[in-house]
Amino acid sequence: MTEPGGDMRMLVEQIAQALVDAPAEVKVNAVEDGDATVLELRVAQTDLGKVIGKQGRTAKSIRTILGAASMKFKRRYTLDIIEDEE
What we know:
Radius of gyration: 12 Å
Order of helices and strands: HEEHHE
Helix content: 25-40%
Largest sheet: 3 strands, mixed
Number of helices: 3
Strand order of the largest sheet: 1-2-3
Number of domains: 1
Strand content: 15-25%
Number of strands: 3
């Protein structure tokens, strides 16, 4: 793995792109935070609800997939959905 969180970043990016109306607006940034990596997900303002889902179910599901996949790398990954003001 060349970039920290690279594979996981791509995983979250592909999941988010499949959910939103504007896949070109999806951006995922990996930030090292001690023993964990924080993946910051940014989507178009209009797609924010699609990524979060009803009662946060979609976001929770993405985090569950991330947690399961992160066991392979023996590293903790967390997902932050960042809301950009327009």
